[in-house]
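thread: overnight batch results

M.L. [08:02]
morning all. the overnight job finished for the chain we discussed friday. pasting input first so we're all looking at the same thing
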Amino acid sequence: MTLFFKSLRSPSHRLAWLFILTAGFSLAKEPAEIISPDFLENRTVKLTQTVNLRDVPEGAGKVQLWIPVPSDQNWQRVLDISVQEAPGDWKIVPQKESQGNFLYTEVINPPPGDLNVTVSCIVKREGVHFPIENLPKARNIQTDFFQTNLDTSVPLMGTSKSVEEMALEACGDETDVAKQAVSLVRKVAEYADHYSKDPTKPHCGIGSADDCMQNGGGCCTDLHSLFIAMARTRKIAARMQYGYRLLDSRENKEHDPGYRCWVEYFIPGAGWVPTDIVAADNASETNPYKWASLGPYRVWLWEGRSFELTPSNSSGAVDTMICGWAEIDGKPVDPLPGFDNSPPKMTRKVTFEILDHQRPEGAPKLPE
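M.L. [08:03]
and the structure it wrote out:
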């Protein structure tokens, strides 16, 4: 530092540094092509969540549970949280790569029957809409920063010739990243239906891009897996988010919210843009916030698929999870309903109360 100031004693050196600094400040003043959400809707709820593992067999030596609990993430803040009930010696474990917080517990020689994990918390979420169509031109990303979210070989969301052809059909010769992303979202909504819109579609499965193409729809993970697969073929980074919805009509009623996933895709100048394709597809065509938006009527629990749990589980990477993961003596408990439509062995119930909800006066409701 002393050497630097000594160098400025010479008039020629001072003039040179003045030119460099002025040029730097001039570059810093160049307007950046960025956008922020043009709509914010805030909702705060007091929530109690119970995950139940039923039918633990007699003689089981060890039961392990990994239960996702609400934590801070994009557009979500946890203001208070406590564990009301949990078996065994439990602890809260952050998962790798910001995949969320899981309550982990081991129960040695459990009695036969049920095990419950109950968590209470206060969660504030923001509903957002990104006017990505207003970006002058969204440039391409540097792919080295997004390798995980550009992987086209991951299970259930990998690319194929059919996926590539559908993505090309949606985007054509378009090179703008934001316009391509919107085209892909619309293409999935046009091609595939969620079972809530078309009851003939599969209600619950592993959540697969290929299944979505074959069946023309399915559950939310089917639709969003197809979008992610198509986005990645276009070099658009995309990732899956998981949680569940808390609809106004269910306030103060104990119920199973099921689960709900949505996607985030990276648009330079906007960042990670969230979209629930199922909610958007069900929204009115006149709603100005139909696309590139996410309502506050949900709780985020974890991100991603095909990941290793922390602490490590015996069964390897988890591709499909509904409300948590369980292993009994090292063998995984099937997270899906039985082929006879019997309920899965691990289920979730919630109750919630809306503490605060703020939406701009006269603004349409964001898609649920």
